[in-house]
Each structure stands twice: as C-alpha cells, then as structure tokens.
Predict the structure.
Amino acid sequence: MLLNRILTIAAIGLTASGFVIPEGQEEGTYAVEFVDGVEVHTKLANATVYAPLPKPYASEPQPNRLIRRDYSCGGARDLHHGNTDAANADLDRQCGGGVNVNPGMNYYSIRGDIVAFFCNFSDREAKYCSAGGRQDYSREITKACGWYNSGWFTFPNQWSIGYDRGRCFCGGCA
Ligand SMILES: *[C@@H]1O[C@H](CO)[C@@H](O)[C@H](O)[C@H]1NC(C)=O
Ligand SMILES: *[C@@H]1O[C@H](CO)[C@@H](O)[C@H](O)[C@H]1NC(C)=O
C-alpha cells in the first residue's frame, strides 16, 4: 500500500501541476511555475475595478439533465456574485484574445474569497487560454453545477479552467 502511494505521488509529480495559493495572497492575477520543483507565484496584474462585460457569461442556467463528465462541481454554493464575476474578468484580461500558457504554468486571479484559474497540465505543450473560451466554459459550468456554484472543466492531462473558493487548485493538494 505504501509503495502504491509513493508511486502515485511520483506519477502525479510528473504529470500534474496543481498549485497552492500562499496564505494571505493579495487580490490580483498571478502566474505559477515550477522552478527546480518549487512553486513560484508571480504577480502579473493588480485586481481591476470590475466592469461587467457587454455580454455577461453567466446567463441563467437552462434546465439540463445531461451533465458532461468533464465538468466537476466544487463544494462551494452560491459564491459571491461580484467576486466571481470580477475574478473571472481578471482572468479574461490575462488570457485576452488568446495566449499560450506554457507547460506546467498556471494562471489564477483572486478576488475576495474567489479564485478563477487556468491550469496547464501538459509537460510538453503550451495550452491556449482565451477570454472567449473561458466565458463559454463558464456558461457550461453554470449549466452543470448551478448558478454561481463552484466548478471547472478539465480536459484530462491537458488543461483545466474554472472557479472556486480555497487555496488548492488543479490537484495542488492531492
Ligand atoms: C500594483 O499596484 C501597485 C500600486 O499602484 C504598483 O506599485 C504595482 O506595480 C502594481 N503591480 C502590478 C503587477 O501591476
Ligand atoms: C503548459 O505547460 C507547459 C509545460 O510547462 C509549457 O511549456 C506551456 O508553455 C504551458 N502552456 C501555457 C499555455 O502556459
């Protein structure tokens, strides 16, 4: 059993690149990279004054019985709407019209108790993060998980995007 666990941890170490947000991290947008096995968090931008996007992503969820298995719902319900929208909007500012996120690099934005994140699980390829894509996935997360409940979409071994409370993301505390 112990050997199993060690092997599992080693395997995760090779493929996953989840992260843990340092306690007391201030609001803003960050990149996380692993440098010699150490998580390095770099602040990319301060939190901005939230301005609603012309087309808000969070349209009222349609009744939808078909929940795709690639969507995971976190445990948090009825997240603070303003903080959720603002964290997602700051992540959108970072990803913009589309940026390549390097292997093993993750982005996140903090607003209040909410974190919006994009994780690149690949150890080889850059993954594409864009504001438009983020908004599409957030709409689907809303359908799968409910109105302002935490959730994320994961393309296994490739990338993950979503929002939740807490400090551990993308398997960072697994
Ligand atoms: C955030 O704002 C502070 C104070 O205005 C400024 O000194 C700092 O450079 C900003 N940080 C980033 C990453 O833009
Ligand atoms: C994803 O991670 C890989 C490996 O660290 C890196 O080369 C690639 O640039 C990352 N992609 C993005 C979009 O950050």
Observations:
- Residues 2-169 form one domain.
